[in-house]
Amino acid sequence: MDFSLTPEERQIRDTVRSFVEKEVMPLEPEVLRNERAGRPAVDPEVLRDLRAKARKSGFWGINTPEEYGGAALGPIMSAIIAMEIGRTFVPFSFGGSADNILYAGTDEQKQRYLIPTIEGERRSCFAITEPGAGSDARNIRTRATRDGSEWVLNGEKTFITGGSEADFVMVFAVAEPYGVTCFLVDRDMGWKSEPIPTMGEWGPAALVFQDVRVPEENILGELGKGFELAMAWIGQGRYMIPARAIGSAERMLGMAIDYAKIRKSMGQTISEYQAIQWMIADSQVEIEAAKWLTLYAAWRVSEGMDARHASSIAKLNGAVMANQVVDRVLQIHGGMGYTKELPIERWYRELRLLRIFEGTDEIQKRTIARNLIKGHARLGLIGE
Ligand SMILES: Cc1cc2nc3c(=O)[nH]c(=O)nc-3n(C[C@H](O)[C@H](O)[C@H](O)COP(=O)(O)OP(=O)(O)OC[C@H]3O[C@@H](n4cnc5c(N)ncnc54)[C@H](O)[C@@H]3O)c2cc1C
């Protein structure tokens, strides 16, 4: 069993770390100022310039196949790069990627949706959740009715990330009598969005479809097979959620250690107290555990193995870990941790989402338990 990276992989990791430290982290004070004044976190032009700079150094389409101009570094390096980017709360990501579900499109759909999204010319959003169907995603009510060569969509989606900015949506609707089907729907076909304020900094949106007419050729995948399509593709990328959180947790733990070494109480630095040391130790143990569970899930994807069970474990563990670590880091900072002078409270609010979206903690536990009970996953086998 070899845990080492090749020299090239190490170089990529180090280059990303230095890019994040030199180019992205300096924006942090401005991001805090902007967000607290209700402005966009970073000027879109600044983000565009950063991405262009990164592209020049080859950081473009990290996990995008080479035939689409990507770097095709694979799931393990994608996870490692996400860990590095997660070290900052600046809403930055390298350009050149698209929701993986779009690779299921026809050649024509790839030209109209996938490639422009990779190139950053179009923005997408993924809409399955409805006011009456979250964890119970099979219960969606949005309807698609055939009318000649078109489908007419009616219904409402909620909590859709990027829904305010997207110019097309991958929306899941029940196409009678076939079942749940995914449609690619341009904004100018007539759907509307309304931002939803949340405790985090980037709000999702509610989407309304009222007699939205969509041509037959805009069905993504097969008629009636939308649910399986969504679950298969979401499952493939789920390890990226804990990956980013690992970077955030590590950076915050570093801040807590630095603070504990200088903050004095009752005649000594708080780093001398066992209560503080235990919080530091527990955090590092949990971060390391999350790291290896995440890399294992990414490895399964890279080997073409079924990664759904491993990804559920990694997502559940990573989300809980990040919330425990940020809570301890805030505690170690005392009253300062609770202020808006430091970014900890911001991370606290942002990381809380991880236990809810892309399958809540409870749904991941349900999946893990059911896999074991039904024999889809087995205990105690390493390497299979
Ligand atoms: C900021 C944000 C961004 C999001 N982005 C997107 C997006 O881009 N696209 C999209 O489609 N959706 C998105 N979502 C929706 C998200 O996936 C759902 O909120 C999530 O799946 C939970 O559904 P729900 O909110 O309806 O909660 P519910 O399903 O109503 O759950 C309520 C509680 O009951 C528990 N529960 C439910 N069923 C069970 C069960 N069978 N067993 C045990 N416990 C159960 C849940 O774990 C939870 O604790 C986003 C949500 C948020 C908050």
From TrEMBL:
Domain Acyl-CoA dehydrogenase/oxidase N-terminal: from-to ranges: 6-121
Domain Acyl-CoA dehydrogenase/oxidase C-terminal: 224-372
Domain of life: Bacteria
Key word Nucleus present: no
Record's keyword terms, sorted: FAD, Flavoprotein, Oxidoreductase
InterPro entries to which the protein is assigned, alphabetical: Acyl-CoA_dehydrogenase, Acyl-CoA_DH_CS, Acyl-CoA_Oxase/DH_mid-dom, Acyl-CoA_Oxase/DH_mid-dom_sf, AcylCo_DH-like_C, AcylCo_DH/oxidase_C, AcylCoA_DH/ox_N, AcylCoA_DH/ox_N_sf
Protein name in UniProt: Medium-chain specific acyl-CoA dehydrogenase, mitochondrial
Organism of derivation: Nonomuraea zeae
